């Protein structure tokens, strides 16, 4: 209740407008944060998630959880990731799902705030291996709006799934449009592999 009240106060005074669909709150899912072009994206994500009543988790370098910042990062939903063994991330997420924890795992597939050529495919692999649906979150400075779009169940046809993602983000510019990366995975030119998923680092 406190977080939702703070979020409402934020939107009341912010230059940004919240325009959002309601994601599922009765099962775990993945929440895409894109375009990821600024540190302000994190603030907007917290305000969005609190407004729609979803518990968020996010992946961060294990070094962020050391020292005095550790408890704060965990309180905000952070999950430490050792990038020397990223395969353990999926096991951790599956374990949380099996214990009945309901949360939205926030992933920024661009992997960096700078303009790039491809999205990283970790979100796709986690979604396929866990069966978690993917909700498309966005920031669009051209309209000064932010929020959540549709929730998708990925099929395993990488190109078809990403066509749906691209269609949604086609008019979303991010906080800094010059840093926007087009939603595209390297694996899209590979044949569809049924229940299998792209290889990639799931920590980003």
TrEMBL record:
The lineage of its organism: Bacteria, Bacillati, Actinomycetota, Actinomycetes, Micrococcales. This is 1-acyl-sn-glycerol-3-phosphate acyltransferase. Residues 173-192 have a biased composition (Basic and acidic residues). Pfam families: Acyltransferase. Keywords: Acyltransferase, Transferase. The keyword Acyltransferase applies. It comes from the Bacteria. GO terms for molecular function: acyltransferase activity. It comes from Oerskovia merdavium. Residues 173-204 are annotated as: Disordered. Residues 30-139 form the Phospholipid/glycerol acyltransferase domain.
